[in-house]
Write a structure and sequence with these properties.
Elements: H1 12-19, H2 45-58, E1 67-70, H3 78-85, E2 91-93, H4 117-124, H5 128-135, H6 157-170, H7 176-190, E3 204-208, H8 216-225, E4 230-235, H9 238-245, H10 257-277, E5 282-286, H11 287-292, H12 294-305, E6 317-318, E7 321-322, H13 344-347, H14 350-359, H15 361-368, E8 372-373
């Protein structure tokens, strides 16, 4: 084990220029980005950056807890569930959808331990953090495009890389779990205003992905890395699901109604397989439970996971701040909303409703018989 802190390149002024170079931004660059020592506090931007990196490394909070992985077909409550975990003092909650781009966002990555830490970081880095750093984070539901909350996300990829390297230098990296622990540690420590990093004693990391929902091999890899982890699957009445999904622009679903419903059926059938294969590690709930009786649903889930039930589990937040629903329809209020449960009656045609009830509703009923812990 090498306890040395890796060398950090002095790139503070370059980062500052990048952050303030967007012509559409109203931000005003501080005068000190020139690289000169400021006469008031006696440090150059490069020296400030070096000190910031060293501080993040030396006071690194290890994030090595088991992962609670929320994964099911889109428009089924995964975003809501992930943001109900946000700010719970016993959880490190990934703030938005967990997307690893290598080989693509639909595949749980396989780590080559012989490749070394630079390749590990390249494979695991989440590129969407750049967009959220530049423009802030907001949900992308088509009903919330113009008036939705936007949250700042001060996350520096170079600091994540520096913390990642520091973790590698100070820990034995002998298996894939060690690499994922390194990833999570670097991610949450590079999120500079993470309000929950130091609060409470953590039991879990929570993360959500709709992209990985449809392949058994993704969950085989997940449980190989996290044998102590848990998988949460949420299923939504296919009528209500299609009423939402048909209004949401997505590259995840086919263009036609019948083909999209087939994807819902495949995902729901996979849920049944997962409950059989991993009965002690898979938890099932419905979208209808989650938005219709949020408190009871989260009390049951908290008891299953062995975490304290707290009021924060009933209010979706981003970094502790209230956030509105990720809906395909207009949203004016914060918190959970129950309107989606019956909306399909006014949105779907009689032909669509009949087709769904004939071809998918019995599968939904079958899956619902397995609610909770299998």
């Amino acid at each position: 084990m090498n306890n040395a802190i890796p060398h950090v390149r002095r790139i503070g002024s370059r980062i500052a220029r990048a952050l303030f170079s967007d012509s559409g931004s109203n931000a005003v660059a501080p005068s000190s980005v020139s690289g000169a020592v400021d006469e008031t506090w006696g440090l150059s931007p490069r020296e400030e950056y070096d000190l910031l990196v060293r501080n993040c490394q030396q006071h690194m909070v290890p994030v090595t807890q088991p992962l609670v992985f929320i994964s099911q077909i889109q428009r089924s409550g995964g975003t809501l569930l992930s943001q109900l975990f946000d700010h719970h003092p016993q959880c490190h909650a990934h703030p938005f959808e967990f997307k690893i781009n290598h080989p693509d966002t639909h595949v749980w990555p396989k780590i080559d331990l012989a490749a070394g830490h630079n390749e590990w970081f390249r494979v695991l880095f989440e590129h969407e953090t750049i967009e959220h750093l530049k423009y802030g984070y907001k949900k992308t539901g088509s009903g919330t495009v113009n008036d939705h909350d936007r949250f700042r996300f001060p996350f520096l990829p170079s600091i994540q890389k520096a913390v990642f390297e520091h973790y590698v230098y100070t820990h034995e990296m002998t298996n894939e779990r060690a690499v994922f622990d390194c990833l999570m540690t670097s991610y949450f420590n590079a999120w500079l205003d993470n309000q929950n990093l130091f609060a409470g004693s953590k039991k879990y990391v929570t993360a959500f992905s709709s992209h990985m929902h449809g392949r058994m091999e993704n969950f085989e890899r997940f449980f190989a890395v996290y044998p102590d982890g848990y998988l949460i699957r949420s299923i939504r009445d296919p009528r209500s699901w299609w009423a939402s999904a048909k209004h949401q622009e997505s590259r995840q679903l086919p263009n036609t109604f019948a083909e999209a419903l087939d994807v819902w059926k495949q995902s729901s059938s996979l849920t049944l397989e997962l409950l059989k294969r991993y009965p002690d590690r898979t938890y099932l709930l419905t979208f209808e439970q989650l938005v219709g009786d949020t408190e009871r649903t989260m009390r049951d889930l908290a008891a299953f996971l062995g975490i304290d039930f707290l009021p924060i589990l009933t209010e979706p937040t981003f970094n502790g701040l209230p956030i509105r629903a990720n809906s395909s329809f207009a949203v004016k209020e914060h918190g959970t909303i129950s309107e989606p449960l019956e909306r399909y009656k006014n949105v779907l045609s009689a032909e669509e409703t009949a087709h769904i009830e004939r071809n998918a509703l019995s599968l939904y009923d079958e899956v619902c018989t397995r609610l909770g812990r299998s």
